[in-house]
Design brief:
Blueprint: H1 2-50, H2 55-132
Helix pairs in contact: 1-2
Length: 133
C-alpha cells in the first residue's frame, strides 16, 4: 500500500518538475521579448535623435514608438506574471518532493517490517523443525 502511494508521489513530482520547466520557459520567452522591445525602443530613439527624418516621418516614428512602449508595458507585465508562476511552481514542487520523501520513508519502513516478519516466521518454522527432529 505504501509502495503504491510512493509511486504516485514520485509521478506527482515528475509532473511538477515538468510544470516548473514550462513556467521557466515562458518566463525566458517573456524576458527575451522585453529585451527585444527595449532594443527596438533604443533604435527608434536613436533614429529620432539623428534628425534624419522629414517632419512626416517623425510622426510615423513617434506613433511606432508609442506602440512599442505599449508592447513593452505588456511584455513587462507578462514577465512579472511568469516570474510569479515560476515561484509558485517551485514551491509546489518542493512540497511534492517533501511528500515523496515521506512516502518513501513509509514504504521503506513497510518493506523492512515485511522482511523482518518473513525472517521471524522462517526462524520459527526452522526452529520448529529442529525441535521435531
Amino acid at each position: 500500500m505504501e509502495k503504491e502511494r510512493h509511486r504516485k508521489a514520485e509521478r506527482l513530482v515528475a509532473v511538477q518538475r515538468q510544470l516548473k520547466r514550462a513556467a521557466e520557459t515562458r518566463h525566458g520567452q517573456a524576458v527575451r521579448e522585453r529585451v527585444r522591445l527595449d532594443g527596438e525602443t533604443a533604435d527608434l530613439m536613436a533614429a529620432l535623435d539623428d534628425g534624419r527624418f522629414a517632419p512626416l516621418m517623425l510622426e510615423n516614428v513617434a506613433r511606432r514608438l508609442e506602440r512599442v512602449a505599449l508592447a513593452r508595458q505588456q511584455a513587462h507585465a507578462a514577465e512579472v506574471a511568469a516570474a510569479d508562476q515560476v515561484k509558485a511552481e517551485s514551491f509546489t514542487l518542493k512540497r511534492a518532493e517533501r511528500h515523496a520523501e515521506g512516502t518513501g520513508r513509509l514504504a521503506r519502513a513497510e518493506e523492512e517490517r515485511t522482511a523482518t516478519d518473513a525472517i521471524a516466521e522462517a526462524s520459527l518454522v526452522s526452529s520448529g523443525r529442529a525441535s521435531l527432529a
